[in-house]
Amino acid sequence: MQISNRFSKPHQISRILIIQLGDIGDVVLATPTVRAVKEAYPHARVSIMVRKPCGSLLAADPNLYEVVEVVKVRGSAFHVMKEQVKFIRRLRRARYDLVIDLRTDDRGAIMSFLTGARERVGRRCVKPFWHDLLFTRILDNLPAAPPPVHPGADQSLRIVRAIGIDTHDSTPKLHISSKDQEYAKRILAEHGLLPDGRWFTLNPFSRWKYKEWDDEKWEQVINSLRERFNIPVLLIGSSQEDSAAESIVSRCNGGAHNLTGGSIGEMAAVIATSSLHIGVDSAAPHIAAALGIPTVTIHGPLDWRAWRANDDLNKIITPQMECVPCNRKGCDDSGKSQCMKRLEADVVLQEIDRVLSVLKEIH
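Above: the chain sequence. Below: its structure as tokens.
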């Protein structure tokens, strides 16, 4: 473990705050960084600040003392101001010795400054000009680590590595709380699924529609899995995706269940019970992989190589087109991706078979 760049008086670092105000996948990929910081400062209280509703994912992380959720306050200007002042006071009372911001956005920089911590570490940001002034130490030119370091986890690890903190295990890992485990047992029982059963989870949804695949092809995949293996497929997602999930379930010849809804932690608890997770480029495959569940993930226009592992138990499927990946929001930023439309169900089923074959050999 590197220690050359660490702070001169590490024994004075007893309260640490890591700020990760990114999306769900970013929070999952930051778990090795949390672990690295705790390994470097085993006696310190390590906390993390995330956006609501990401906190439920980290509620059972043994490396964390506290999860601080940033909530978007609504209401009158007076109410918003009152809640913000209350939140700032909470940050000041925590008396953090070290704050590490894992992103370059304005909000994280402001939150870091408001803590009043004597050591505030951030990454250089060209705009706005005042961003870097809110930190006591600014990092620049952070090299990526070569394999076998997890590429997605390294996005955060390279930041703490620059201040002398590292870990031998870069694998993202999540832990399920007992409360969320009970939720999973209850909802599975409601669908007639026994604790000792076997099933696959499937998330066909993304925040961005240009990452999604056709419902008709998901129907083909689900029906094929049902016919060949007689294994139920559980559709997961947010409550906003309930009607879309119900539409896919209604297309299938039985064996498909709509389990959308619940918190992110509860969704993770359901994924943790599955034998395989199948889905598109979204947070769910990150969650599954961090729980040790094998994954088959469809990636269209966006490049996966800087974020995901691709091995025998975690397969990435990309359409075989010269323009892939284009890193655009659909073709010509239209919000629609021809590469996803052209991807056939047989290709996905072949990759699922490959992963299941590996699992069979292991067990």
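The mean pLDDT is 94.
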